[in-house]
Amino acid sequence: MLPNGHQIKREVDFILDEIFETMSTTLFHLRENTFVLYNKIKNAKSEASRQNLKRLSLDYLERYIYLILFNAYLHYDKKNQWQRPFSKWMKEVAASAGIYKLLDNLGFYDFDKMPTSFKTMKERWSHRGQALPFHGVFS
Q1: Which of 12, 30, 90, 117 is an S-S bond match for 135, by CB 3.0 to 4.6 Å?
Q2: When comparing pLDDT for 137 and 71, which is higher?
Q3: Please, are residues 82 and 52 in contact by the beta-carbon 8 Å criterion?
Q4: In degrees, to the nearest 5, what angle opens at C-alpha 8 toward C-alphas 4 and 10?
C-alpha cells in the first residue's frame, strides 16, 4: 500500500528477528506469536476461549502493522528530520493509502473461516477498555 512497502516490512522483520535473539525464552516474537495464538484457536475448549485467542492474535497483528507504519514514517519524513509528528503523518499519508480501511477490516482472510466480533478497530479497542487512537495518537 505504501511506496517501498515490501522493503519497509523486511526491515521491521529483520529488527524483530534481531531483538528476539536477545530476549528471554519466556518472551515471544511478535510476528510469530500472532500466528501461534491464531493456531491455538483450533484447540480451544470453549467459544469464549476461541474468541479471546482470536482477539489477542488480531491485537498482535495490529501492533505489527503499526511497527511497519512507524518504520515507513521514519523513512518518508527523514528528509524533513521528522518535524511532522507520526499522528499527522498517519492522517496525511497512511490514511490516504487506505490504512484505516485495512485496520478496520483486520483478519486472516486467507485461512479464516471463523467469524469474529473483533474485526473493526472500534470493536478491538473498546474490548480492551480503551478509547480508539485518533489517527496514531495513543496517549
Answers
A1: 90
A2: 71
A3: no
A4: 120
Closest C-alpha to 74, from 64, 82, 85:
82
Cβ–Cβ < 8 Å for 19, 83: no
pTM for the predicted model, two decimal places: 0.71
Grid look-up 493456531 returns: 39
Residue 94 CB neighbours (<10 A):
24
Cell of 9: 516490512
Dig out the grid coordinates for 48 from the structure: 469464549
For 32-83, what is each residue's pLDDT tens digit?
777 777 778 778 888 888 888 888 888 888 888 899 999 999 998 888 888 8
Spell out the alpha helix ranges (H) of the chain.
5-22, 30-40, 47-76, 86-89, 99-103, 121-127
Q: Which letter, b or e, does each residue of 25-62 get, where b requires 16 or more Cβ atoms within 10 Å of its Cβ?
A: eeeebbbebbeebbeebeeeeeeeebbbbbbbbbbbbb
Whether 65 contacts 109, CB under 8 Å: no
Region 83-105 average pLDDT: 87
